[in-house]
Structures are given as C-alpha cells and as structure tokens.
Design a protein that fits this description.
Blueprint lengths: L1 E8 L9 H11 L5 E8 L5 H13 L3 E7 L5 E4 L1 E3 L26 E3 L4 H10 L4 E4 L6 H15 L5 E7 L6 H6 L6 H17 L13
Parallel strand pairs: 1-2, 1-3, 3-8, 4-7
Antiparallel strand pairs: 4-8, 5-6
Helix pairs in contact: 1-6, 2-4, 3-6
Amino acid sequence: MTRVLVTGFDPFQQDTYNPSWAAAQLLEEKPPEELDVTAVRLPCVFGKSIQVLRAAVLETDADLVLCLGLSPRRGISIERVAVNVDDSPGLDNDGRQPVDEPIVPDGPAAYFSTLPVKRCAAAVQQAGIYSEVSLTAGTFVCNHVFYGLMHLLATEGKQRRGGFIHVPHTPEMPAVSAYGVPSMTVDTVTEGLRVVLTTAAAHDTDIKVPWGTTS
C-alpha cells in the first residue's frame, strides 16, 4: 500500500471555502485503489505553511506527497518547477507580504517536481478532464509550499516523490461570477486528481513529448 499525503489550503482572506482543501478531503474519504491517502490542511501563510507540511510529511511517512492550491486556471494545472523566491503580490492570511526574499537562504534557485507531470496531465486529459503542464506556480504561498516541499524531499534523506497542482475555482465561488474566472466542480477536480495519484504511484518516469502551457 502506497502512503500518500495530500494537502490543501485554508480559505484565503474573505473566502469561506477553498476547493484545494475540499478536494484533499474527498481524496482521503475515497482514495484510489492501493493508495492510503491522508489529507492535511495548510495555513495560507508564509513560513507556517512549510512548518505544518514538514510535520505532516514526517508523521505520515508518506511515499508520495501532492500539495494542492487554488488559482484561476482552466483545469488541473500540474506544476513543473518551484523557484526560490517569495515575491508576494498581496497579503497572506497573517497579513505578511514578503518581497524578493529567498524561501531557503542559500538553497538552489529552483526545483523540478518529481512527479511524471506530462504523463499525469495526459492521463487526466484522456479521462476527459482538462489538464495542463504549468511552468510557473507564481511567487505567493503556493510556490512557497511547492519549493519548501521539494527542498524537504531533496534534503531529508528518505526516498519520497512529490509535487504541486493548482486547481480551479468552483462554479459557486464569488470570483467566478464577479470576474468570470474559469471554474470546475470539486467532484470533477477530485476525479482528475485520482487519475494523477494513480498515474504517479504507478510511474516514476515521465513521457517525452512536447507540451505547451497556458500559464
């Protein structure tokens, strides 16, 4: 049985709901076959989010770690690279706004996901759900967590794999009607994420095909 840790975020600022956490909970309640999924909610806060993540990774002793975050993407957006910078466009949930600060002083400039990102995106698309490979997770708390995860996996000493996925808003969220951002139901998102987890658990190598990104 493969142990999987899936994380989602607290609601951001005035939102009362975060689809990343809702999807993580659904994955824990109904995991893919042969996977033991634990869901953990992270604070949408610089620093604290990585602390909670690290504790969860060590407590669950997960073989596979998938962190989820919310972004106005068309569908399941599988991130390929995390960069070592916090350059926040706004305040986190604790009112912090780091600008041009390294996430890990003297850490590498970037880390690549250790998930087979193209293979996972292709499998989700074959399931009839929109998915893409993204080359930027931004410079807010999502990238902060993604980089923190990959640094932990690279330095902690145990063989684990992990990565980050942005999920879209759900149709009932205020931003969808107010700003016309793309949306997808949380059930559809969760179905696509089950495909990602199944694919990532079964394959540790990626497919070598060209892939565009709309990010």
